[in-house]
Amino acid sequence: MEIGNLKTAGPLPAALANPAAIEKVARKRVSAPAPAIRARFIPPLHVQLGRDHLDSIREEIESAEDVLLNVYEDIELFDARGSALDDIAFLLVRMKDRLDEVVSGRDRRADIRAGMDALADGLEHAAESAKRRNIPLLKPVSRVASPPESAPAVLADIIFVVSRSASMKSDAEAMLRGMNAFSSDLANRGISAMFGAQPFERSSQPAGPLRSSIFDISDDLRSMFFNGETANALAAVRQTLEDQSFRENSLKAIVVVSDRDADDDYASAGEEALEAVSNADAVVFAIAGKDFFSNRPFSALNRLVESSGGEYLSINKASFADNFAALAERIAEALLSRGAHVTETSERIVHIGPAPADSFLVKFPDYRPEALGLRNLPLETEEDFAAALEKISDAIAALAEDKTEKGALLERLRRILQFFDGIRAFRLDFRA
Fold first, then answer.
1. Structural domains in the chain plus CATH codes
2. What pTM was computed for the model?
């Protein structure tokens, strides 16, 4: 689809053309707006300043903030890619400068050959190292794909087993802020994910059914009260595998989130959890604290993690955004180990809102030297030099067009933020 200079691989969400569309998304997420909000006229000032009206506005703005987390993440993604494109452009211009004059003499041409090879290596390094949350920005992303004989091989059911201890409240808030990017990361890796939450203290039970939308699981987590103590974590893992309705042939990924070690109140809890994990063929991950004195992973949780082939990620040493990026990568690796295949794609899913219609595909071209046709260019004759210059000029032109298109997209994303900034600063009514 094309709007102005912006081209995408699929239809654009309405929010990009009209930021007020996100306002409508926010309204859908509020169960009962006050009558003053539903009115089609501007309420009188005494109504606008009334408690019910202001509470409704606050609810709608807070609901929109969930959606806007995607927009903030998207802007950071395109900003990071723009900086990486500047590095590529600099190297391409240097390549062009080296070939602007046709030279004679073998020694001089050998010099140019060495310089061109070094610049091609620089392009390779720049394209390989440009990443955002472990997702490459200047080369194709690896995706897991089902082998022909096993269509469900890319399914992952991910359950967050979260401690309800009072000390976990701030960690839970940080966790919620990183979940949108986590969902996008999984989608870009070709993983069909569903999410669940199972809070635990002395006992545990699902916070809701498995959900396909990360926004819904975020709501489940927000409904939790963090006012208890870390207790029966091992029993909670076992109960999760018993309580949740997993899809057939899905990878069962249990993610224990806790700042303390398991403190189960009966001796056989560890063995029962190990047996349940083994019988379910599940993988246990932990985003958890470490022992204060040894700085080693908590032993009880780590035993589950290691026995299932998962990974223990530090809740203290890394941000939830980084931990979620690592978790998405490990889940993809677990699917590959179970028979999924690897494909590559230059398309990225960019999410704005919670519904499939609120996302779209954007192409991120491959800027490695082989893809640009700039590796091992022949440089023997005048015709070789002319052909090499043409290839470099084509690459520079393609990069400029790419940057212009993504700049148009970035501008539209920023308009969404400006729209809501205007509401916060100047408006009391929340009309469409």
1. 2-129+378-426 (no CATH), 142-345 (3.40.50.410)
2. 0.73
